[in-house]
Amino acid sequence: MQFQIGDAVIITRDWTDEEEARYRCGHFDLLEYVDITKTYIIKNVSDRGNYYLSCGWWLPECVLAHPEYTYPPIPQTLFSHECIHCGEDIPLESPNNVCETCQEDYYICTGCGKSLHIDDLTNGSDGELYCEECYNNLFIECYNCSAVVSRDDACSNDMDNHLYCSDCYSDMFTYCDDCGCNLYRDDAYNTDDGTYCELCYNDRIPHLLHEYGYSPELTFLDINSKEYNDSNDTLYMGIELEVDNGNDANSFLENNESFFEDLPVYFCHDGSLNEEGIEMITHPCTLEYHISKIPYHEIFKTFASENYRSHDTDTCGLHCHINRSYLGKTYDECDINIAKILIFYERSWDKIIKFSRRTPTQYNHWCKRYARATDNDDQIKELLETAKSADRYYAVNLSNYTTIEFRVFRGTLNINTFMATLQFVESVIQFIKTIPINNHHRINWDEYKTYISNESEKYLELINYLNSKEL
Question: CA of 153: how far to CAs of 169, 207, 308, in Å?
Fold first, then answer.
């Protein structure tokens, strides 16, 4: 039988027959209120020790109900307290001092032990819940990918004040093998014998023809002299033009140093070319700057004078890098515009290959197609993820951190073909930005032709070239 404090009871000694007394809890000397836990003790009952009475407990077998007389029970406040969240009376033994209703929405911070509403707690990288203060003390979000990592596992560098997860740090940064300084991988100078910063590399490689992967401190050139920044709305294009089968490359550059020294170009070896092949790389420029400020016609005549060729080889390509920052101010916005570029290339592949002048052998080796369907959202997401994880030898190369590279075009020293190619790259970017992703069915060659026909003054060489190819 279950008793409540305040019941009239008979307490017996199990070795004494008929010896009994009637007591009311807290009224006679044998019972005593002890402490704030609302516990009552039966004193001097037997040598077996003390018995405890509290609401809802079973009493010892030697405690029997009085058959006739019962006093009113003691108030509930003597054996309960309030839920720390809603104030409801709850038993003393309630977990974390929280009622059953609140237990469904309140959890304990793993760091400090506070009971908080689920909306005020955050998952750490270990899967546990933390309050805001503990979360900020123990974890960081990777500046690049936003993954949550422990502060103990976060990586930093001496170039910015940001923290990164180990994967992003390895992808984005390296260090100079000479001076040990941190470097963005895109800014590193990679040679056969190591990786170097600009200063150390220039100390080691003083000649004009640099090793593959060399990159100077870039100058962003706009015909309006607008200063470059990561959040601007200007499209910059960096061009890589390969030439091959000429005379001695170092002698050629030394003989023409005065011509090239004031131009925003530099020169590198490239493993895909023959020994005397050269890759000419421009600093990032707007389309207008490329057209009006860089004397490509004279550059091409200078190459040809030393027997260099580009289209008439099996090795040369014309690649164009554009700044990712132009495609979106957020990671998601940038991804959406990249997806639209990929859709256009997949749906217009045959037209683009004809434009590019590449042979099947060339494009299957240097600038492959992703060859994915683009009929619905799931297929488009799969195409984007495939492109993100692919190597660099695809028509649209996403493996660079700050740029997207268009690799599909065959090299050329024909000024009209060259300018049409630059205009093609720029016009495709502008075209896809005019179409919302939920209207992706409009991303096709016919819609693109309509777009550039409305911009005929800007894309004159492109339109003439497309007409000549019956595209």
Answer: 11, 42, 52
Write the DSSP assignment of 232-278 as a string of letters.
-----EEEEEEEBS-S-HHHHHHHTHHHHTTSSEEEE--TTS-TT-E
Q: Which residue in this structure is represented by tokens 């000419």?
A: 280
Q: Indicate where the chain has its CATH 3.30.590 domain(s).
A: 207-468
Q: What is the pLDDT of residue 78?
A: 40
Residue with tokens 């050329």: 412
Burial class of residue 194 in the structure, from the number of CB atoms within 10 Å of its CB (0-12 exposed, 13-18 middle, 19+ buried): middle
Provide block-wise average pLDDT over 10 residues at a time, the chain (471 residues).
Answer: 41 36 36 33 32 35 38 40 60 56 70 76 79 84 86 80 86 87 85 81 67 86 77 89 88 86 90 86 95 95 93 93 93 95 96 94 89 93 94 94 94 96 97 95 96 94 96 93
* C-alpha of 348 from chain center: 30
In Å, how far from its chain's centre is CA 464? Answer: 41
Q: What is the DSSP string of 185-206?
A: GGG-EEETTEEE-HHHHHHH--
Q: Which residues contact 14 (CB under 8 A, 6 or more apart)?
A: 46, 61, 62
Distance CA 142, CA 172 (A): 12
pTM of the model: 0.59
Contact call for residues 221 and 289 (beta carbons, < 8 A): yes
Beta partners for residue 64, in sequence order = 10
CA distances from 450 to 339, 453, 454, 467 (A): 21, 5, 7, 14
Topology of 207-468 in CATH?
Creatine Kinase; Chain A, domain 2 (3.30.590)
pLDDT in tens, 241-272: 999 988 888 888 888 888 998 899 999 988 78
In angstroms, the CA 375 to CA 210 distance is 45
Q: Which residues of 408-436 are buried (b: 16+ CB within 10 A; e: fewer)?
A: bbbbbbeeebbbbbbbbbbbbbbbbbebe
Distance CA 281, CA 320 (A): 10
